[in-house]
Design a protein that fits this description.
The chain is an alpha+beta fold and about 450 residues long.
Length: about 450
């Protein structure tokens, strides 16, 4: 574990209780000890912190990618837990801290993600938070708890306990996804938005009447979940062609090493260089069925044709002869060249269009008009959002709405974080929880396991 990671985490964690009056702080600590499951987050006046110069825009040395925080100006109680959602590709971390170098009360929810392959760096960061929490609050508070969800909560369970030496409370992944999404929809202004070419980010006001809806969670794979009411949901479908598919194929085809690198290539690529478009077939729009000439008729449809034409040209000029090296070079030079940027854009469109159409079909089958897209595949990437929004609008003829979130990758970790809250703490009662002091069955099993 690197000391720089722990140092950064310590600095971040140092904000957890700064500037809080000592008597109020001591009272909050006592309450946390007596009833660790009853720390209520005050969301009054919550807002997303835009353009924060203290947040790096690129991954730090420890591999952490910081995303925009949510400011909670009216919360000043001690929060003695952090939440992790560990997926197949990314580990997403959420924790609370008080404002740094400020006389103001309140604090913020912090959002970070690490590649799951670097889970040791993520745990090193959490260890720094844990150490600083103990230093700030003393031994009276005991250990910081870890709320964990996702497949990695089970895969890395022993590692988390061994490295951090704390209680690890594992929570159901689907339950956490829905709880996190409900929280964002009902509590946080300027979080949920719709997309159109004229208005790329049209924000929706927080509201209480949100059911039913369809959640399309796009991570390494894709899950589609019908949500009928508070804590009432079922997984109705999905597809294995998700973010992991894009990441895997582009790493083979382009040599790109990170998902963000692939998205940057897609931004400047031209999919028309490899995709067969409607215009390539009809020479114009196909107005009878509402297809523009730029619509994709076949993803990667030009590749085989262009490759075959290059091979035929090479044969016509003797390029396939192996009599000498010069002929071999001619054959190689005659082959069509496909830019990695064009390949990236084409595959991004292929995966996104496929997800969008399946989402529409599921929403049509289950009569759901509101479709929320979440998961770390999206990452606020305009082309991805545009493709998904266009697919829903096109296939539904405008009857259904596609919604996106600014913290789309943190639904599970926020849901896990909220699992430590009491019943109906939000302004709009955005979710339910067990009565104070009574752990869920999963929590009780974990606590008993830690004590053995």
């Amino acid at each position: 574990m690197g000391s720089s990671t722990a140092g950064e985490a310590g600095e971040a964690a140092g904000r957890m209780n700064r500037r809080v009056p000592l008597e109020r702080k001591a009272s909050s600590i006592d309450q946390t000890i007596l009833s660790p499951g009853t720390v209520s987050i005050n969301v009054k006046g919550a807002f997303i912190v835009d353009d924060d110069p203290s947040r790096p825009s690129t991954p730090s040395d420890d591999g952490a990618q910081h995303d925009t925080d949510i400011r909670l100006p009216n919360h000043d109680a001690v929060v003695s837990h952090v939440a992790l959602d560990i997926g197949g590709s990314l580990a997403k971390l959420v924790y609370f801290s008080h404002e740094p170098n400020s006389k103001d009360l309140g604090g913020r929810l912090n959002f970070l993600k690490f590649e799951t392959d670097r889970i040791d760096r993520c745990l090193d960061f959490v260890k720094g938070l844990q150490d600083e929490f103990r230093r700030q609050n003393g031994s009276r508070t005991g250990s910081m708890s870890i709320m964990a969800t996702g497949g990695g909560a089970y895969k890395f369970y022993d590692d988390i306990k061994r490295i951090l030496g704390v209680k690890v409370l594992r929570e159901d992944e689907m339950d956490c996804l829905i709880m996190g999404l409900d929280f964002f929809i009902t509590e946080i202004p300027r979080e949920v938005f719709t997309y159109s070419d004229d208005d790329p980010m049209h924000f929706q006001q927080p509201r209480a009447n949100i059911y039913p809806y369809l959640l399309v969670n796009i991570g390494s794979g894709v899950s589609m979940i019908k949500v009928s009411g508070r804590r009432q949901f079922e997984r109705i479908g999905g597809t294995s062609l998700g973010g992991g598919t894009l990441w895997g194929l582009l790493s083979l085809l382009t040599g790109a090493r990170t998902f963000d690198e692939m998205l940057k290539m897609a931004e400047i690529g031209d999919n028309a260089a490899v995709d067969m478009l409607v215009g390539d077939i009809y020479g114009a729009d196909y107005n009878k069925i509402g297809l523009k000439s730029t619509a994709i008729a076949s993803s990667f449809g030009k590749v085989f044709k262009m490759k075959r034409e290059g091979e035929n040209q090479a044969e016509d000029h003797g390029g396939l002869s192996h009599e000498n090296r010069e002929d071999d070079n001619d054959a190689s030079n005659s082959q069509p060249s496909f830019k990695k940027e064009d390949i990236s854009r084409s595959l991004l469109y292929a995966i996104s269009n496929n997800i969008g159409q399946i989402a529409y079909l599921q929403s049509e089958k289950h009569t759901l008009a509101h479709i929320y897209f979440g998961g770390s595949f999206i990452r606020g990437h305009r082309q991805t959002i545009q493709t998904l929004a266009y697919a829903i609008n096109f296939w539904s003829q405008g009857a259904k709405k596609a919604y996106f979130l600014r913290h789309e990758g943190y639904l599970g970790s926020v849901g896990a974080f909220l699992k430590r809250q009491p019943k109906n703490w939000g302004r709009r009662n955005s979710f339910e929880e067990c009565p104070a002091g009574r752990p869920t069955v999963v929590q009780q099993e974990e606590e008993e396991d830690v004590g053995t």
